[in-house]
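Example 3.2
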Amino acid sequence: MALSPGTRLGPYEIVALLGAGGMGEVYRARDTRLGREVAIKVLPGELSSNRERLSRFEKEARSASALNHPNIVTVHEIGESDSRSYIVMELVDGATLREVLASGPLPIRRLVDIAAHVADGMAKAHASGIVHRDLKPENVMVTKEGLVKILDFGLAKLTQPDLPGGPLTQTPTISAGTEPGVVLGTVGYMSPEQAGGKAVDFRSDQFSFGSMLYEMATGERAFRRDTTVDTLSAILHDEPEPIGQSNPKTPAPFRWIVERCLAKDPGERYESSRDLARDLRAVRDHLSETTISGESPLAPRARPRSALRPVLAGLVLIVAAAIGFYAARPFWKTPATSVPRYHQLTFRRGTIFSARFAPDGQTIVYGAAWEGRPIELFSCRSDSPESRSLGLPEADIFGISSSGDIALSLGHRFVFGDENNGTLARVPLAGGAPREVLEKVQWADWASDGVRLAIVRDVGGRNRLEFPIGKVLYQTAGWISHPRISPRGDLIAFLDHPVRDDDRGSVAVVDLSGKMRVLCSGWTTEEGLAWSTAGDEVWFSATRTGSARALQAVTLSGRLRLVANVTGTLTLHDISGDGRILLAHDNSRFGIIGLSPGETKERDLSWLDWSLAADLSTDGRTLLSGEDGEGGGANYAVYLRKMDGSLAVRLGDGSCLGLSPDGKWALSLTMHHPAQLVLLPTGAGEAKALPQGTVDEYHSGSWFPDGKRILFAGNEPGGRTRLYIQDIAGGKPRALTPEGVDLAYGSHSISPDGRFVAATGPDQAFSLYSTVEGQPRSIPGIDSSERPIRWSADGSSLYVYRLSDLPARVYRLDLLTGQRQLWKELMPSDPAGVWSIAGVQLTPAGDSYAYSYGRILSDLYLVEGLK
């Protein structure tokens, strides 16, 4: 009997029935503790009453709950109430793939994109030893934003009836009711080994996945017959009609992937699902280089599978080699069949920050820091390799108006990570002195009238987009970048980043009334954005894994396509009125330099491509670091390494925050949404997730000196950042400060006695906040552009430095007098392309330290013909 709205299952209040099937009933429910909506699956009575099967089910569900992947629905909790067993999951707002397929086969780009995301989730689960056993379109959700989520990973095995022998003992759960013939919708996705009652492993999921891919491409089920027995027989013995006959537009490499998944012998499928996911990503990312219409001259003809297998194996190798060849070629050497032409504009060694076309379409103005010098503005012509300085040091460009006025950032400096700051000013392109407009502006863009400006700045602890200046269209506890006004002036596109000091996020637009919508999301890094010439697409540079950004385009309806992909990282800067593009090819890395106690020579402690120093042990001999780039992967990685340069040890996933005082635990922040604080053991032991309470976003964290508590900055849904205290032993986090208070983004902000925290208030000024009681008191001699690194051992001073300074000058600041003393200057010996010194860590005694440096070496290109 279905549960009525208002029924309680523990702390969960039933809202509505979402669906029912052999695995139980699924409800929309409200978590009364956290005030969030969840999905609850109430398990069948026969399962709840069988204690042995229920125990096995709970064990499998706990394994599934640890997967933490953006393409797998998160399992929150397993519970029991009034003899009803239930499982609480992330609520996904969207449609099942079955509903998506109701209108027939999918367009090629959407088909391959969905397939690649399902394969990524499947690969993650298989790598963790978890097999689905019931993959089918009903168990895949597609959200309105285009995100793809797999349901019920690892749960099907233990909800199947315990019956002896025979093919039907492996029948997956029925997807709707018990009407005659409904079982066909599930049996049709079985693997031959399932249909034969044999043991299954991850390769069985590959076959089920292949059946789904076939249906997505053709609109027809691969093995559908009139009866269950006939369907099982077809799975065991028959081959489906070739995809090319039903849908000739399907790329040949995709068809070969499907045929490999549908091999009757598991040994002829993929040896790992990671390889399957990689092949699908390659097809997705190179659709423009594959045959989308017509029959490929290498496409396999219909023939018995036994004769086809060796041919397919050879063809897969040929296609993989071709895709690898094109992906590895320098992007200015496009294939002969491609139209785009790349013309290099810059030739010096350093970093390009921004570049814009002037109204004449031939003059280009860009901000760059060459050979380790400060950033300044240069101009060049599209037909010349020479650049000249505009004589405006420490300035970057925001945009050029239709009337030829440059909006620029004077005193341009980086504040946190990729976030920058400066004074908004305007100056004629023809020359003259800049006129200052507004201080502490992070981004700006001209309206087509050449008068009004859209800006991004921090106000009251929120990062907000204003247009015109003073009118707030959108604000966030995270940060906003690259705002661009549409050619018609009715929309502003921007990159929305949920976490400060991190450039992952989504692409969004907001109209002039403040209505915001997300066009696409899930990007690990995103930088650079511009409107297409027609204003029907937003172009941007981003990637979903690692740091190698590609050029993407998304329509206002959310249809995404890949424009260009290369070896390395791309950053989009501008698109001219005639469709030419300013594109930078960036070699970006973060490295670590450190000094061990008793040594006089610094050592390079970089590990992979984006090494960030997160903490030092008290004795200065152990470094905790994070890898947030290509090597760290989509979920980042946490490493522990001795300061003597010995090999680093990977502790787990997440963004690295700090090392416990006893050195036994590393504090990490998961990168999925909602994020969660996790303790990773530095030795033997298991990771521990800390309760989230009502916190929606985390921004930074730090250990208390007693090692029993954690201080972190976060915010509740719709709220501003505030400080919380979390006990390691358990319990919900509790708020310490009012909203608008933030940490210095991962610094050791807590005093040695644990009584005070150095943090910024709503006015962005630093103060000391009591962890016990009392009003905050100001810190003399420090400003909001500086970052506290840690307290001195006696608690009388703070070590501080300004992120924008190169080299970084670290001072010891007396908390009573405000007087400061220079402790050390930090800078790599090779300054070219170094744009940031971050993550400065040192021991309380100051006898050992480590710091990260960001280096970008850029080349600017003018590109013609990209579409």
